[in-house]
Amino acid sequence: MTGSFSAGSTGHPRCAEVAGAGFAGLTVSIALARRGWTVRLHEQNDEVRDFGAGILLWRNAMLALEVIGVAPAIRANGVAPATYDTSLNGEPVSSELAGYPYWAITRPRLHALLVAAARAAGVEIVTGSRAVGADPEGGLLLADGTRLAADLVIGADGAGSAVRNSLGDLTQERKKYQDGVCRVLIPRPEEFQGPEWDRVIDFWTLEPDPMRILFIPTGPDKIYMGMMATTTNERASRIPIDVEVWSERFPHLATAVRLAGRAEGGRHDTYQTNRVTPWSIGQAVLVGDAAHAMCPALGQGASVGIVNAVELAHTLDQYDDVGEALTVWEQRERSMTDAAQARSAYMAETRTLAKGSGFTPEVMETANFVLAAATPENVASYPVPEANRSW
Ligand SMILES: Cc1cc2nc3c(=O)[nH]c(=O)nc-3n(C[C@H](O)[C@H](O)[C@H](O)COP(=O)(O)OP(=O)(O)OC[C@H]3O[C@@H](n4cnc5c(N)ncnc54)[C@H](O)[C@@H]3O)c2cc1C
């Protein structure tokens, strides 16, 4: 090991073929290209874009995004929530995370920032290019029958990953959960204007069945609403939002629910997770949801994927042997990732966040994770309030 091997031991730039231009695929592509790799990123859709709701990016993700130079634009385009407040049956139960460094942003904006950074780093993005598999010798197999040879092939093609499913020696545990979420972006009405509304509010009711509205301002003109219910509650699992059923349970949010009913471009997803072992075989590796889709209860799925993507490029830089780098990388990231998956599954199953004061030091371990690629200056610029430290 040691030294920087971005040019490989032959002196030629190393090359990667990446499947999937979601948050994980874009991040790993940027991180590798900035370290001298030649990177081609394949997206099955004819356009590179993410659909229109919002996302929370925790401190772990922001540190990773600092490494690839995208964090300043996120800070400029997103909202740093003042607190994370929880309300049960219309009554406040806790206010947490005051001063904790995390951001909310719309998904299209985050995606556009990553696409711009990828192009600036020299990544070649090929749209309408569908991967059907990969081989451990570093080949990416496309739907048109082409095999592209690379030093590393990366499956970043999401929870249903064709790349992962083609690599028979990886074991998978997949699970579907009882809950689903409708996600919409609404315009920010007059009554939710002002800095006092720049906070996350997690509204719950548990009887007769659990329903939840996660209210996240993502900028001066947009609020992201994540509306969770069990899939057996069919009316609450519909897009467009069923205004009657949601405002009956959340009468104090009637204005926002009405706007959610008119929102365009919303979608409903059920929770599904997968745990893959190991994350790589030969010169083929998985990042993001392809490797470790998790319940959204912790809001950490993309954040952990972004961290692991940046760490992958950092580790590859330190070894001339790709296989050795992949082993070291997985050893570094595995326990943090497994813990995040297990914790978010527990939180989804027990609905523990509804009680308030859910961001215990143990729960904050994922958000507080510091990647090896982060500089001490970056780490120092995201200080963690004493109350939220997990150390
Ligand atoms: C309700 C909900 C709320 C969430 N909230 C948060 C949050 O607040 N914070 C957070 O960090 N995470 C959150 N997550 C998790 C987060 O959305 C995912 O972890 C993240 O989007 C996964 O990114 P990805 O790039 O791995 O995969 P994806 O986003 O699925 O991207 C995969 C890309 O690959 C493309 N693709 C697929 N198959 C192929 C193929 N065969 N060939 C070529 N291209 C292909 C797709 O078109 C897509 O562009 C949430 C998830 C849910 C369901």
Give a verbal description of the structure.
- With 391 residues, the chain is an alpha/beta fold.
- The protein has a domain of 222 residues: 3-Layer(bba) Sandwich (FAD/NAD(P)-binding domain).
- It is 31% helix and 27% strand.
- The chain has 12 helices and 18 strands.
- The strands form 4 sheets. It has a 7-stranded mixed sheet with strand order 5-4-13-14-15-12-16.
- A hairpin with a 2-residue loop joins strand 4 and strand 5.
- The protein is globular, with a radius of gyration of 21 Å.
- Bound molecules: flavin-adenine dinucleotide.
- The site of flavin-adenine dinucleotide (FAD) has 32 residues, from helix 1, strand 3, strand 12 and helix 9.
- Keywords: Dioxygenase, Monooxygenase, Oxidoreductase.
- This is 2-methyl-3-hydroxypyridine 5-carboxylic acid dioxygenase.
- Pfam families: FAD_binding_3 (PF01494).
- One of its GO terms (molecular function) is dioxygenase activity.
Strand content: 25-35%
Q: In CATH, what is the homologous superfamily of one domain?
A: FAD/NAD(P)-binding domain
Q: Count of helical segments?
A: 12
Query: Looking at the structure, what is the overall shape?
Result: globular
Distance between the termini: 31 Å
**Reported CATH architecture of one domain:** 3-Layer(bba) Sandwich
GO molecular function, one term: dioxygenase activity
Organism: Micromonospora pallida
Protein name: 2-methyl-3-hydroxypyridine 5-carboxylic acid dioxygenase
Keywords: Dioxygenase, Monooxygenase, Oxidoreductase
